[in-house]
């Protein structure tokens, strides 16, 4: 299952990206240059016509001097239930619950619900330290290259950010909390 941001979140992000870009008096061409995202893709994102990866939105946010959580409305006094950012037709989902920032890092807390057969691919962010996961229900399987990490309910793990990895349910359903730290650039 490929990574898909929920359609209503795509529209929300597109509107906020456009507003921040225009507020900074940046053209789409200049934002494309700063973010490394093509002008065409940026236009489609702003119009809610493209479903970018979270990594792509992170690059755009960084170029705008903001963050994915800020664009999603979770930074600071966001909704107490967070924002359901990702979901699949099978019933898997991920919600960005909360985020905080310091002068050096952004910290995001996610809640995941993965059903068997669904997976979520993660590409490491430059300079990001390890991700932490705590499994609330079931078993989480983290695949990276030739190695697998299994974490049972009640267990926690640190997941390296030096290589791509995939989250999967090791049983029928895996529910876990994830904490991601991103360096401020």
From TrEMBL:
Listed PROSITE patterns: HTH_CROC1 (PS50943)
Stored CDD domains: HTH_XRE
Domain called HTH cro/C1-type: residue spans: 17-71
Swiss-Prot/TrEMBL keywords: DNA-binding
Source organism superkingdom: Bacteria
Gene3D superfamilies cross-referenced by the UniProt entry: Jelly Rolls (2.60.120.10), lambda repressor-like DNA-binding domains (1.10.260.40)
Pfam families: HTH_3 (PF01381)
The protein, known as: Helix-turn-helix transcriptional regulator
Protein species of origin: Streptomonospora nanhaiensis
């Amino acid at each position: 299952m490929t990574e898909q941001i929920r359609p209503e979140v795509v529209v929300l992000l597109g509107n906020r990206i456009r507003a921040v870009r225009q507020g900074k008096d940046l053209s789409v061409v200049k934002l494309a240059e700063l973010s490394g995202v093509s002008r065409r893709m940026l236009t489609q994102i702003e119009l809610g016509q493209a479903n970018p990866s979270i990594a792509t939105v992170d690059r755009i946010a960084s170029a705008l001097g903001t963050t994915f959580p800020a664009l999603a409305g979770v930074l600071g006094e966001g909704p107490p239930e967070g924002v359901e950012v990702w979901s699949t037709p099978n019933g898997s989902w991920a919600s960005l619950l909360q985020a905080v920032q310091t002068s050096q890092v952004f910290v995001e807390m996610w809640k995941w619900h993965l059903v068997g057969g669904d997976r979520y691919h993660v590409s490491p962010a430059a300079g990001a330290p390890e991700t932490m996961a705590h499994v609330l229900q079931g078993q989480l399987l983290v695949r990276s290259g030739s190695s697998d990490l299994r974490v049972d309910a009640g267990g926690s793990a640190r997941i390296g950010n030096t290589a791509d990895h995939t989250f999967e349910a090791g049983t029928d359903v895996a529910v876990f909390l994830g904490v991601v730290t991103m360096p401020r650039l």
